[in-house]
Specification:
The strands form four sheets. A four-stranded antiparallel sheet has the order 1-8-3-6. A four-stranded antiparallel sheet has the order 2-7-4-5, covered by helices on one side. With 361 residues, it is α+β, with helices and mostly antiparallel strands. The chain contains eleven helices and 16 strands. The protein has helices spanning 9-25, 30-42, 46-62, 66-89, 99-105, 163-168, 189-198, 200-221, 230-239, 322-330, 333-357, and strands at 110-114, 119-121, 130-135, 138-143, 149-155, 160-161, 174-178, 182-187, 241-245, 249-252, 260-266, 269-274, 280-286, 291-292, 308-311, 315-321. It starts with 8 loop residues before the first helix and ends with a helix. The longest helix is centred in the last third of the chain and has 25 residues, at 333-357.
Length: 361
């Protein structure tokens, strides 16, 4: 779209400065605005060219030069498409897609304009369309089990919005509200599915991003962890992985070396020991919000599970690598205190029960 020029950048900048001065001196002479657009496009300063074209288009309409205004509008559309493609290529979601695919898939793209305070997504809504934030900022507000709102984070330009509902085909998990005037690209579901079929790595990247975001939301709901600094929560979210277990499924056997620190975000577990006659006895229950394997995070404490850990419901854990968790804990007193509380839940009741019942583990 941009014409080639043999002029140097310095010469083009000089031409631009001259045309800007002439436009200021002769505000009704639209030819100087046309010159500005030409030079800005040669310099590949497309954002400025688009704004100047808008000014030029309005001037031509006011003077009754409708044909010239229409030409300026066509050039604006071309620039907008090129700007949009550049923005799409820069997103983590779409940077792996071929340019030809993007041009076809999003040829009939739908752009949304939001004013400050406008809702893009309502919590609990059934629709699953995704969006890409082109300009502006969006605030994400989740809700806890009591329906109380919790601020999560601010989404920046280039981020994908609404991917959790799209990937899981479930209702919206948060409210998304414009912090200021914002522009978004709505991604047609059929285009997204076709993109995933053509390039599975894009789907995997989106799933990883969605998982990290969901983990961060779950961490912010946890009483013992939500008070950690935002950068620490972000680090934990990037390292964490979801693991799901069915009811009455053994998560870890007694004696297994502890490799991860696990946070229960759904369901609950029980610690089960074995008596000398081979019968089992429930030692303790750990509910949603509890940490598993905490003793391994403390130097000189037990590095193995002292009982079987069994899922008593459909249980979801967020697992953090032990070595990473230890490093984070060493620099954050609040996390250290949360781990100590976890050790107390795991060890005190367990060890007392073992002593009283003379369990053989």
């Amino acid at each position: 779209m941009v014409k080639q020029s043999s002029e140097t950048t310095e010469a083009l900048q000089h031409r631009l400065a001259m045309s800007q001065q002439l436009s200021a001196a002769y505000p009704l002479a639209y030819k100087y605005l046309q010159k500005q657009v030409e030079v800005l496009m040669l310099l590949e300063r497309l954002d400025e060219a688009e704004l100047t074209l808008l000014q030029l288009q309005n001037m031509l309409i006011n003077r009754g030069l409708n044909e010239e205004a229409e030409k300026a509008g066509d050039i604006r559309n071309h620039i907008n498409k090129e700007l949009l493609c550049n923005q799409l290529y820069s997103t983590p979601f779409l940077h792996l897609a071929s340019s030809s695919f993007l041009e076809k898939a999003f040829r009939k793209h739908r752009r949304l304009e939001l004013e400050e305070g406008d809702y893009l997504i309502h919590y609990g809504a059934q629709e699953t369309q995704m969006f890409i934030l082109i300009s502006g900022e969006l605030a994400v507000w989740s809700r806890d089990e009591a329906e109380k709102k919790h601020f999560e984070h601010v989404m920046q330009v280039g981020e994908v919005v609404g991917e959790l509902a799209f990937l899981e085909n479930k209702p919206r998990t948060a409210d998304v509200i414009a912090c200021k005037k914002s522009t978004l690209l709505a991604i047609p579901s059929n285009a997204a599915l076709k993109l995933f079929m053509e390039n599975p790595s894009i789907e995997e990247a989106l799933k990883k991003s969605a998982s990290t975001r969901k983990i961060q939301m779950d961490l912010r709901k946890n009483a013992s962890i939500k008070k950690l600094p935002k950068d620490v929560l972000s680090l934990l979210a990037k390292q964490g992985k979801f693991k799901h277990f069915n009811a009455l499924e053994r998560i870890y056997p007694c004696g297994q070396e502890i490799q991860t620190i696990d946070l229960i975000v759904q369901g609950y577990v029980r610690l089960v020991g074995e008596l000398g006659d081979g019968t089992s006895l429930i030692l303790n229950s750990l509910k949603k919000g509890a940490l598993l394997g905490c003793s391994a995070a403390i130097p000189h404490m037990e590095q193995q599970y002292q009982a079987d850990i069994v899922s008593m419901d459909n249980t979801t854990l967020i697992q953090f690598p032990l070595d990473f968790f230890q490093k984070i804990m060493a620099t954050n007193p609040r996390l250290y205190q949360a781990v100590l509380q976890g050790v107390k839940l795991e060890q005190d009741t367990l060890m007392q029960t073992i002593h009283d019942k003379q369990l053989l583990l």
